[in-house]
Specification:
This protein has helices spanning 11-24, 75-85, 133-140, 214-220, 234-239, 248-258, 274-284; strands at residues 29-36, 57-62, 65-69, 92-96, 120-125, 156-161, 166-169, 172-178, 186-191, 196-200, 225-229, 262-266, 294-297, 303-307. It has 310 residues and is α/β, with parallel strands linked by helices. The two termini are 28 Å apart.
Length: 310
């Protein structure tokens, strides 16, 4: 699959990513790192030390090519890490936003690498009832809601509609399909030469918790890593069954039906403290037998690596 077609002001982006891919050659290592794992709103305090309180942000690094899932408050610490590792160097990265609820875009104005005049961040997201993704994002980050607008950052921010259900971003092959939630929301499947990662951050489960949308199965099928909404316990879901999320057990069902290798429970409820998530981790821990699906509770700083590791 070739580079993203030059459209919506992305001509310079296409050439840059194509050249990076050509120069790098075959990928050998994909790193997935969690910078924000919380849902709904950021949390702080002694109850959120080990799993973290930042909202959704997961970073893929494919031999130096950066792709970001969501721009929650976890984006800020990623920016701190990136600047420390690349002093003086401008960032060139892409981001895939599932939807424009606050917990998925709130980190963008505090992303340090955008304070470099040569930085480039290309952001893709869904349209909302005929309104472009750029217009929705621009209206969310502008006065009086925020002191400055997207065009006031020193770096170059390009916000674009998802161009198609399947497209390429350099070495990443991306599938984007609608996922049940509140408002226009998509999930992503990202394939590289060494691994496939599926990202379903917010998923409205059916009332019976017994069926799965076909698009969700398509996104997740056979993935090496599935990052999935797991906001509620069953008792919590009973009173919040139309709030746009699902249960831990439902996330497990999606993973099992999709035959994934590893499941990261994600988008933790603000009420779920470290102690509560420890209990979840204990309950989903497997035997470690070969061929068994790995299940883990995502926490800030967690990493998974795929491919050749030196």
């Amino acid at each position: 699959m070739g580079p993203l077609p030059a459209a919506d002001g992305a001509y310079w982006y296409t050439y840059q990513r194509w050249w990076q891919t050509l120069q790098r050659g075959q990928s050998e290592l994909l790193t997935v790192k969690f910078y924000g794992v919380r849902g709904s709103c950021p949390c702080s305090g002694a109850d959120y030390v080990r799993y973290g309180g930042n909202t959704a942000c997961v970073v893929l690094d494919n031999d130096g090519e950066i792709l970001i899932f969501d721009l929650g408050t976890g984006l800020r610490p990623f920016g701190v890490d990136w600047i420390a590792a690349n002093p003086g160097k401008p960032l060139a990265a892409s981001a895939l936003v599932t939807h424009t609820h606050w917990d998925h875009i709130q980190g963008l104005p505090f992303f340090g690498p955008l304070d470099h005049e040569e930085a480039v961040l290309d952001i893709f997201g869904p349209t909302e009832e005929g309104v472009s993704f750029r217009d929705v994002l621009t209206s969310s980050i502008s006065p009086p809601l925020f002191p400055i607008g997207l065009g006031d950052f020193r770096g170059n921010i390009q916000a674009m509609d998802i161009p198609d259900s399947r497209f390429s971003l350099g070495s990443y092959s991306v599938t984007a399909l609608p996922v049940p939630h509140v408002g226009a929301t998509v999930g992503y499947r990202v394939e590289t030469e060494v691994a496939t990662v599926a990202y379903i951050s917010d998923h409205q489960a059916p009332p019976g918790l017994d069926t799965i949308d076909e698009a969700v199965i398509e996104l997740c099928q056979g993935a090496d890593l599935l990052i999935h909404d797991s906001q509620y316990f069953s008792a919590e879901f009973e009173g919040k069954s139309d709030w746009g999320h699902c249960t831990i057990e439902y996330a497990l069902l999606v993973a099992e039906k999709s035959d994934v290798s590893s499941l990261a429970l994600f988008h933790h409820d603000p009420l779920h403290s470290d102690g509560v998530l420890d209990l979840v981790a204990e309950s989903v821990a497997g035997s470690g037998e070969p061929g068994e699906m790995e299940v883990f509770v995502a926490f800030e700083g967690a990493q998974r690596k795929f491919g050749n590791q030196v």
